[in-house]
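Fig. S4 source data, part A: sequence.
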Amino acid sequence: MGDKIFLLFFKMLEEIIIMHIQLYLDMLIKWALTSGLKIIFVVILMILALKLVDNFTEKLIKNFVSSNYDSELEKRVHTLRTMTKSILDVLILAVGSMIILEKLGINIGPMLAAAGVVGLAVGFGSQRLVEDLISGFIILIGDQIRVGDVIKIGDKSGLVEKVDLKMVVLRDVEGSVHFIRNGKIDIITNMTKDYSYSVFDTGVSAKENIDNVIEIIKGIGEDLQNNSQHKHDILEPIEILGLDKFNDAAIIIKSRIKTKPIKQWVVGREFNLRLKRKFDELNIQIQ
């Protein structure tokens, strides 16, 4: 008797389990044919969108760099590409994830509200970072400075060792390194963009023959331009700007030489050395 009751109970339990399994299978199939397909479709679209962004930005970079080859410009464009791709990837994943959660029956309203509060808090904390990124983007896209330029920012000047979306790194003539946030940059003075000038203020006694002094300065500039060591650094012949001003016992003759970027100091030092030797030879005193 006990065995029959046990078998009957086991049979009923088996039927209940099968019925529930069948019910859940039916629900799963129904969900898979409706929301499930939509979720799969959304996932496929997300993958395709991510791939499309990657291919599009990469192709854009290759076309741009191949037609405008410049090693530093290439680095700058790659930085912008990475930033743009990251923003688009996050946007695609965020939108796709919200759609999937909604299809799973999860109310995303409270999540969006919570995300808004968290985003507001993070926004206040990351305000400086956002400011740096925006300023860095403008600096990069505007091609204002490059690695290897000599620039001045505020009271700091030096050789640009690194420039990215967050900061500019300068090394001054003493070897000190300055890290400057992009968000703090107001005015950038680039002393080596495209070309440079080495400017000379030559002071001599008012008793000297000005025309002779000008010819001497011009001759030194011409000799320097014909010198095998420096001729490739000089872009144009020396320009005599004329008698610039009077001092107590001297007159100042201003001149300049146009040079390749960052070469103005090398050319300027060599010019001053030759000028001093020539003036000593002719007994012309520098005032």
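Fig. S4 source data, part B ends here. The helical segments are 2-67, 71-103, 109-125, 127-141, 210-226, 264-281.
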